[in-house]
Amino acid sequence: MNGKYKALWLNEENYLEVIDQQKLPFEYVSKVLKTTDEVVEAIKDMTVRGAGVIGSVAAFGIYTACLEVKNYEELKQKASLIRKSRPTAVNLMWAVDSMMLRLKNSTNLADDAKKFAIELNDAEAKESQKIASYGADIIEDIMTKKNKKTINILTHCNAGWLAVIDEGTALAPIYEAQRRGIDVHVWVDETRPRNQGASLTAWELTQSKVKHTIIADNTGGHLMQIGDVDMVIVGADRVSANGDVANKIGTYLKALASYDNKVPFYVAIPESTFDFDIKDGMKDIPIELRSEDEVKYMRGVDADGVLREVLVTPKDSPAINYGFDVTPARLVTGLITNKGVCKADFEEIKQKFML
Ligand code: MRU
Questions:
Q1: Mutation test residue for ligand 1: of 248, 272, 274, 291, the one with most atoms within 8 Å of CB
Q2: Span 8-124 CATH architecture
Q3: Global pTM?
Q4: For 143, what's the count of Cα atoms within 13 Å in the CB-facing half-sphere?
């Protein structure tokens, strides 16, 4: 793909350019990241976000760093800054480590890094296509079994092409189902506090003309009780070897409601989202703690179309902002991966990925 993907690309001058996701859905603008510091800041401030895209940007971040250093030892320091920019999405650490391993004996760091980053990202884009196809098979199956015209799918946060190149994870099967002529409708959780569902998922689905409805985060359980959700598909930021799933805060509550209402709960992930070193995700997956301001303030455009932040709580009330939660494997119906669908279970994951 020559380094050109939907959410990020190498521009004509060979610098990394990304869609500024902080501005969506109000403005579609891109940002050029010319230095390692700019790459690190873009990941930290969520100009780019979503586990897969963070990894993709990190891989090109290593290439960017190579333009600034004289040798591999210097590169290691820059790599460590990128690696530490966010804690939960393991795709970030995986991308940095994969790049550094391949560059170890390089005699031409910048050229090799560019080539390796493109290879890594091309492989990620292919995995997204496979997830699309395996996931759409499940949607088709549910449609046949339930003999329904429209399939209602609930999703949380954003796991589309803004989050994973080149079509996403949770949304990839939905795009593929639409291509197959299946009538899909998506319940989009707003996903407080940063509203990635209401602003990013809804924007993506609008672009592709996929039917959708934005719901307040607390609505999903009620919709399940009245039979209006046929399945849930979410993405993930890290899945442990035993199948526990870290994803955007609130995912666990959706999994609980799904379990109680016998609604299938699927998690769509590429291989880079597995952390085989963690055997107990409930205990060992690190959970990001972000600024309380993300809970206390909300962003939006005012009547004059100006993007603003407004305080929605008493100024002095404290807030706490965990970015992610962990859904135990027992609540997950299946993992939709690039290698097919498997149970969220140590033996099945081992069979498919670790042997
Ligand atoms: O904090 P974010 O917006 O980076 O969180 C993103 C999510 O939680 C997504 O659901 C997750 O990355 C899965 S898509 C790769």
A1: 248
A2: Up-down Bundle (1.20)
A3: 0.97
A4: 20
